[in-house]
Design goal:
CATH architecture of the domain at 395-616: Alpha-Beta Barrel
Structural class: alpha/beta
Shape: globular
Helix content: 55-70%
Radius of gyration: 28 Å
Distance between the termini: 29 Å
CATH class of the domain at 395-616: Alpha Beta
């Protein structure tokens, strides 16, 4: 594939990093290992270029690889792919900067400048200003087990990216070039001697610390830069600045709060994580206030600051020293609580408003004295940080499965002699719950004895009452299906004495639940007590992972689209404001994909300036690990939500809806016909993929399965997709799509092509499927079948590879592309560069799986884990 001029620096970075890795390999692993790796690399490149003899030799070489060479070979290719990822991420930042520097280039698509210019030409300044001021975007960081890289390795990779950035920005002397070269060499050598695999499964607290590290190392500094850019663009278009308390984007977290299917998340864990969040926030604010003390030596001040400083010679410094002392007290108080010691009796910050007041006093005083230019610097940045991060950095959502609340209420009603809550009808449950919600007396007896599961749920509500409103976000109920599921949580909050109730958010996940979401919410909103409770605002979460696993990607995508339409219509009828919370994963099969296109493809009226969305696993590092990329992604969220709110897409034509109904039904039959109704499928899946071995990776605190059964229904969506990604068949993203499209292409291909051209939802869906199919490689999947699958099951694999070919043909027929990703040449080139490095890892993985399954797990499990990590890096995706 020809190299574009703009990609030449990327190739040079990859060449430099690859060369340094090669030197490290030669020096640290020895000449023999170096020559084996180089020979494998040569054969893999020739095989990808179509040399059949090289392909056969590559397979033979890796199949005969001695045990002692497996680990260094796997590590070499894995580390190269991680270095290529770093180079690509850095190159994205480099290209964005080059675009901004070029006076002749048009603004970058989706940037604040481009979007404000386009929207500003279509709406008046007041409308644009109001829309920006009303933005409410919350990115909820989750610790699903998809991030395979250790935090230690990620820190090394970030330092390498910083060195590449430093190398670009220097007007370097030969000595400076050599210094960067040697620093890169040190980092790569350090990475070679660092274990890629966690020795122990992380605890929920470890995951929470990882999330905090993303804020501390990147987002803490990016947020002020992003808000300054937003302020400049808004002022240019409307003549008005952002209000000081504007926070268009905030951050939430499920780390330490998501207990659905994770027995390691307890009430005590949630308490500790929320305190850790507060501790990190206080530390960051104390550091910033210290910098301000150094900076604000000014003596001019208004009466308010003079009075607060009690006539001090340098009033701002005195006010801020008092703030710093109180932050220091807050840290001591949090240390004591985290250590179960008696906290000191000193003034501390419990609410963001208490910290905001002295900062605003200083800001307004500087403006009043004519030193506004000083106020608009570090001080304004800190005020804006406070608006975004509060005193907790991220508010933690609590998530629990509806059945657990029913168990608690059943135990209570039995204890009180009222019968079995679990056996009551939905009407009986609702009547009981509303009656008790209106009743002032406690329901739960003081001496109530409960089993451990019930006690744990009750203790979680007690912790919610203890922590208060700033630490916690929403209470999300998995598998919610009836109004009683929501009322049950409201009652348990009341019983625990939660003063500032968490908003209760039902999560609809499976196909049946999505179809029933509108009716369930309508019934809930007919309850007068609940209407009064929500004060005109309701949040609903829709799940992409389990719906896709349940019915297939196409069927789930259409069901999610229709569910949103119905919920929006319901909210309009009921006169309430609706916020949709999208539970998206990183992979295409779990709702992942480019942010801008995904938001713009939502149904009209479903955004309206408000959006909550999960950011999971390795996606957090990919989107927010480097400052330049983090800022770009924050802008893309902002501009996409603005555009979807001010210029929503048109509703699909009735003919398109009918066709989508047919496509979804055909795709569902095809998907379920294989996954649920083909008896041998589960056996094939377990033989042909490393599903069992992935379960042994210590990459997340949550178990891979909800229940100890072998069926796909008990397997979490993440390992389900992760397994197929490893073999590069990527089955969940395209299974059923080809059969559905082909059935319509024969009779109505023009309508499909018009839908792709004119309907953002359908275009975004097919673009994502095409991207997955470009990454997939059925020939690689065939390697797994040949060595790992019993002969009697091999026909199933052959059939799937045939389906892949037919699906790709059908997708290209609709998109009109000759090859996958013709509209995305950068991704096309990225896939082409990676293939020769991922291929050897797949071949080694096949051999390792064969040896491990032959009884050599103790010897070879670790290299297999490294191999899994390497393929994940090469595919840039796990689950």
């Amino acid at each position: 594939m020809p190299e574009s001029r703009t990609d030449a620096p990327l190739r040079e970075d990859i060449r430099q990093l690859g060369g340094l890795l090669g030197s490290t390999l030669y020096e640290q692993a020895g000449e023999d290992v170096y020559h084996v790796v180089e020979e494998v690399r040569r054969l893999a490149k020739e095989a990808r270029a179509g040399d059949g003899d090289a392909a056969a030799e590559l397979e033979r070489t890796l199949a005969e690889l001695p045990d002692e060479l497996i680990m260094p070979v796997v590590r070499a290719f894995s580390q190269f792919l991680n270095l290529a990822n770093i180079a690509e991420q850095h190159h994205r930042v480099r290209r964005s900067r080059a675009w901004l520097r070029d006076p002749d280039s048009s603004p970058l698509r989706g940037s604040l400048e481009e979007s404000f210019a386009r929207l500003g030409a279509e709406v008046d300044g007041e409308t644009l200003y109001r829309a920006v001021g009303e933005l409410s975007i919350e990115l909820v960081l989750t610790a699903h087990p998809t991030e395979v890289s250790r935090r230690t390795m990620l820190q090394k990779y970030n330092r390498i990216a910083n060195l590449l950035d430093h190398q670009d920005r220097l007007d370097p002397t030969p000595e400076e070039i050599e210094e960067v070269h040697q620093a890169l060499r040190r980092e790569i050598t350090g990475a070679w001697y660092t274990d890629e695999i966690r020795r122990q499964r992380p605890t929920p607290q470890d995951e929470a610390r990882w999330g905090l590290a993303v804020i501390e190392q990147t987002l803490w500094d990016v947020i002020p830069r992003y808000l300054r850019r937003l302020d400049r663009q808004l002022y240019r278009r409307t003549g008005r600045h952002l209000p000081l308390d504007t926070a268009p984007i905030r951050f939430g977290s499920w780390m330490g709060g998501d207990r659905d299917g994770n027995p390691r998340v307890t009430a005590e864990v949630t308490r500790e994580v929320c305190l850790l969040n507060r501790w990190m926030a206080a530390q960051l604010y104390e550091r910033e206030v210290g910098e301000l003390i150094t900076e604000l030596s000014l003596q001019c001040a208004d009466e308010t600051v003079d009075a607060a400083a009690q006539g001090a010679w340098e009033p701002y410094r005195q006010v801020l020293k008092d703030v710093r002392q109180r932050l220091h007290n807050t840290l001591d108080w949090l240390d004591a609580r985290l250590s179960d010691r008696l906290p000191p009796d000193e003034p501390i910050y419990l609410e963001a408003a208490e910290l905001r007041e002295p900062l605003l006093q200083c800001y307004h005083s500087l403006q009043h004295c004519g030193a506004g230019v000083v106020a608009e610097g570090r001080l304004l940045d800190l005020i804006r940080r406070l608006s975004v991060f509060g005193l907790t950095l991220m508010r933690v959502d609590v998530r629990q499965e509806a059945g657990r609340h029913n168990e608690v209420l059943d135990a209570i009603t039995r204890e009180l002699g009222l019968g079995s809550y679990s056996e009551w009808s939905e009407r009986e449950r609702q009547d009981f719950l509303v009656r008790e919600l209106d009743n002032r007396r406690p329901l739960i007896p003081r001496n109530f004895q409960a089993d451990d599961d019930v006690r744990e749920v009750l203790e979680t509500f007690e912790v919610m009452a203890e922590l208060g409103p700033d630490s916690l976000g929403a209470y999300v109920i998995s598998m919610a299906a009836q109004p009683s599921d929501i009322l049950a949580v409201e009652l348990l909050q009341k019983e625990a004495g939660v003063r500032h109730y968490l908003r209760v958010v039902p999560l609809f996940e499976t196909l049946d639940d999505l179809h029933g979401a509108e009716a369930a919410m309508e019934r809930l909103l007919e309850i007068p007590w609940y209407r009064e409770r929500i004060q005109g605002h309701q949040e609903v979460m829709i799940g992409y992972s389990d719906s896709g696993k349940d019915a297939g990607h196409l069927t789930a995508a259409w069901a999610l689209y229709q569910t949103q339409e119905r919920l929006v219509a319901m909210a309009r009828r009921q006169g309430i404001q609706l916020t949709l919370f999208h539970g998206r994963g990183g992979s295409i099969g779990r709702g992942g994909g480019p942010t801008h296109a995904a938001i713009l493809s939502q149904p009209p009226g479903s955004v309206q300036g408000r959006l909550r969305v999960t950011e999971q696993g390795e996606v957090i590092q990919a989107k927010f690990g480097l400052p330049g990329i983090a800022q770009r992604n924050l802008e893309l969220y902002t501009t996409a939500v603005l555009e979807a709110s001010l210029r929503p897409p048109a509703s699909p034509e009735p003919e398109w809806r009918e066709l989508m109904d047919r496509l979804a039904e055909t795709a569902k039959r095809s998907y379920r016909g294989l996954v649920r109704e083909t008896p041998e499928f589960i056996d094939y899946f377990r033989h042909a993929t490393p599903e069992h071995e992935i379960g042994q990776l210590t990459i997340g605190s949550r178990p891979a399965r909800r229940k100890p059964t072998k069926g796909v229904e008990s397997l979490r969506a993440i390992p389900w997709i992760f397994s197929w990604t490893q073999t590069r068949l990527l089955l969940p993203a395209w299974l059923g799509v080809g059969e559905a499209l082909q059935g319509e292409l024969d009779s109505d291909g023009e309508t499909l092509q018009r839908m792709y051209r004119d309907w953002p939802f359908f275009r975004a869906f097919l673009d994502m499927v095409e991207m997955v199919m470009a990454k997939a490689d059925p020939q690689v999947a065939a390697w797994y079948d040949a060595r790992l699958v019993p002969q009697e099951l091999c026909g199933l694999g052959e059939s799937l590879r045939g389906q892949y070919a037919r699906t790709l043909e059908a997708v290209l027929a609709v998109t009109g592309h000759e090859r996958p990703l013709d509209d995305f040449p950068v991704v096309q080139r990225s896939v082409a560069v990676r293939n020769p490095y991922v291929d050897p890892l797949n071949l080694v993985q096949v051999e390792l799986l064969n040896r491990v399954r032959s009884g050599r797990e103790d010897e070879l499990l670790k290299p297999l884990m490294v191999c899994i990590n390497g393929i994940a890096a090469g595919m840039r995706n796990t689950g």
